[in-house]
Amino acid sequence: MKLPVAELHIHLEGTLEPDMIMELAAKNSIELPYESIEDLKARYSFTNLQSFLDLLYTNLIVLRTSEDFQQATVAYLENAQRSGVRHVELFFDPQAHVERGLSLAEVVAGIRAGLAEGEERWGITHKLIACFWRHAPASDALELLQTLVEEKHPIDGIGLDSSEIGFPPSLFAKVYDYAREHGLHVVAHAGEEGPADYIWQALDLLKVERIDHGIRCVEDRTLVRRLVAEQIPLTVCPLSNVRLRAVDSIHAHPLPQMLEMGLNVSVHSDDPAYFGGYMDANIAAAIKPLGLNAAQLAQLARNSFNSSFLDEATKQKYLAEVQEWADAH
Ligand SMILES: Nc1ncnc2[nH]cnc12
Ligand SMILES: [Zn+2]
């Protein structure tokens, strides 16, 4: 039995495997700037977050119809369930699709149809989180969020992603106020490449329930004390951090130290099609190079469910599965 986990940090656009990118491009008659799939694959080497985002945003244009979003979501969920995921809180970037002329309705309906299919086929429960681009004006994010809410598109929460440095969370305070006032869950990427101060801002100004990444918190002892005291969830993505060079190597990753400090960390895959693997590969990175034992892995899995936006009864059901895994290891 694979370690049962909740996947809380996963971007739909980052789950498009090269095969699917080429298949959808052909189906939708979209010309990509690659000569072949080998040419595409040769570009999966990144120097920082931006170098990855450039490729991600080029490739996602192959998603054109509601059915494409459904197909991509189902393909992801199939990989996810194989890697131990029992519950997923899926991110998508609405701005990336609306700016290409797609309607919010077709994007959200396609993803929702895929999530429903995944629940039916593999029992994976789900939430859907719309992430706003921090490199775009906050006024655009607010306008889009108001449309999502007013037109009652079924989302469960909002997040903040894309280029981090130079785009502090403080810019988005009004967006988050609006989201909280309308009963949406709130999370934000912070402290991936950006400084620990961005984590303070996400907590104090955006009042987020979870921090995505957050690894740079270890540079600020006062911040760590606060995160531990309030048990703020940090959704850590080891393979992403290595591939985007947020850490020098997997051996230098702060995950073991973060667990030791009593931080509420869990492990996730971010953009698995780009970073070399799904949940199981990220867990494997935590086991071998980082030397975590079975008790620590079970703790990571418990943290993932406790940090999710699931109802209490479903959380308890999954926590019992983690206990079963822990008893067997
Ligand atoms: N790791 C990441 N950081 C910021 N934005 C992203 N969009 C997709 N993956 C991301
Ligand atoms: Zn991310």
Automatic annotation (TrEMBL):
<dbReference type="InterPro" id="IPR006330">
    <property type="entry name" value="Ado/ade_deaminase"/>
</dbReference>
<feature type="domain" description="Adenosine deaminase">
    <location>
        <begin position="4"/>
        <end position="325"/>
    </location>
</feature>
<feature type="binding site">
    <location>
        <position position="270"/>
    </location>
    <ligand>
        <name>Zn(2+)</name>
    </ligand>
</feature>
<keyword id="KW-0479">Metal-binding</keyword>
<dbReference type="GO" id="GO:0005829">
    <property type="term" value="C:cytosol"/>
</dbReference>
<dbReference type="InterPro" id="IPR032466">
    <property type="entry name" value="Metal_Hydrolase"/>
</dbReference>
<feature type="binding site">
    <location>
        <position position="9"/>
    </location>
    <ligand>
        <name>Zn(2+)</name>
    </ligand>
</feature>
<dbReference type="InterPro" id="IPR001365">
    <property type="entry name" value="A_deaminase_dom"/>
</dbReference>
<dbReference type="GO" id="GO:0000034">
    <property type="term" value="F:adenine deaminase activity"/>
</dbReference>
<dbReference type="GO" id="GO:0006146">
    <property type="term" value="P:adenine catabolic process"/>
</dbReference>
<keyword id="KW-0378">Hydrolase</keyword>
<feature type="binding site">
    <location>
        <position position="11"/>
    </location>
    <ligand>
        <name>Zn(2+)</name>
    </ligand>
</feature>
<dbReference type="GO" id="GO:0043103">
    <property type="term" value="P:hypoxanthine salvage"/>
</dbReference>
<feature type="binding site">
    <location>
        <position position="271"/>
    </location>
    <ligand>
        <name>substrate</name>
    </ligand>
</feature>
<dbReference type="GO" id="GO:0009117">
    <property type="term" value="P:nucleotide metabolic process"/>
</dbReference>
<comment type="function">
    <text>Catalyzes the hydrolytic deamination of adenine to hypoxanthine. Plays an important role in the purine salvage pathway and in nitrogen catabolism.</text>
</comment>
<comment type="similarity">
    <text>Belongs to the metallo-dependent hydrolases superfamily. Adenosine and AMP deaminases family. Adenine deaminase type 2 subfamily.</text>
</comment>
<dbReference type="InterPro" id="IPR028892">
    <property type="entry name" value="ADE"/>
</dbReference>
<protein>
    <recommendedName>
        <fullName>Adenine deaminase</fullName>
        <ecNumber>3.5.4.2</ecNumber>
    </recommendedName>
</protein>
<feature type="site" description="Important for catalytic activity">
    <location>
        <position position="213"/>
    </location>
</feature>
<feature type="binding site">
    <location>
        <position position="189"/>
    </location>
    <ligand>
        <name>Zn(2+)</name>
    </ligand>
</feature>
<keyword id="KW-0862">Zinc</keyword>
<dbReference type="GO" id="GO:0008270">
    <property type="term" value="F:zinc ion binding"/>
</dbReference>
<dbReference type="Pfam" id="PF00962">
    <property type="entry name" value="A_deaminase"/>
</dbReference>
<keyword id="KW-0546">Nucleotide metabolism</keyword>
<feature type="active site" description="Proton donor">
    <location>
        <position position="192"/>
    </location>
</feature>
